[in-house]
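User: Hey, quick favor. My workstation is busy. Could you predict this chain's structure for me?
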Amino acid sequence: MAKKINVGVVGTSWIVDQFTRGAFLNGDYVLTGVAGSSKEKAVAFFDKLKDEGECADNPTLGVFDDLVNDERIDTVYIGTPNTLHFAQTMACLEKGKNVIVEKPCFAKLEQFDAAVKKAKEKGVYLFEAIRSLYDENFTVVENRVKQMKELTGAELLFCAYSSKYNRFLQGEKIPAFSLDSEGGAIQDFGPYVFYTALSWFGDPKKSQYFSRKLSSGVDGKGLIVLTYDDFDVLIRISKFEESLQDSEIYGDGHTIVVHTISLLNSVKDFDNTKPKSMSFHAEDTEPENTQLAQPRTNENPLQDEINFFAREILGTTNHKIHCTKSYDEITALSRKVVALSEKLRGEAGIVFPS
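Assistant: No problem, here it is.
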């Protein structure tokens, strides 16, 4: 019988639900434990999903300490609030378990380095769950950018009106908008735009963050400027504005248009060097374009990363892997993302009590 991953999940939120369903769909994972804020929540989560895929006999259903001490579990997915990520990751690594920690993995570079060091000591894997990095369209765009002879700039956007923002305005303490909970726009959206920028364009020479703080002290929105030798990348993020614009990359007289930077639903390459007709109708003046990547077809948006994690842990897979980066390359990239996030938050005066 082929070896499988005995996975335990920590948390019972929608993102943990989505990960678990993706693990079932992959087929290489066996749900062996669930940890919730209470045993009752863990049991309810398991009962909801137990018929969706392969589960272990007598799974551990309880709180975090119950799960981390189950020797059957070799891999743990952590989908808890940001402030719990580091302590829970270190506890799992200490027990010799692979860890997949939801983004943002850690707030501080020293935490990231400590976790990577512990993972190496124990001979296990440590991943930050950042779904877009593993998507087929991510690699398509990265390869197209590297083909450009003259890259002249880019604009990346992740502006989404939070469903909890109105409650925040009414005085409710919302973790996503709280310093105590390590919230804010960079924490929430930064991983998506930073993994994208650093992968597609490389390391910037300079970085600046012009943030707009909320009354709670976190950044509600901001403009990030990444400066390179011959071009700039402008990044707009916001948790209280909804942008209807796409992200764009400019070079060689082309405009590459990416719809939804976190999901990369579609990618088009517009050739602006060809003659355009003079017309008052927008559809007549739009430059010729090529569909670089097809719309997503995955049932689960986390599927590509889940398949990648299984391939790395088991050393083999029956699924197509789209990300061409090695584990070490991804770890180095993750370190740069954490470092950039911490730097920009610090320069903007955003300090977490923890």
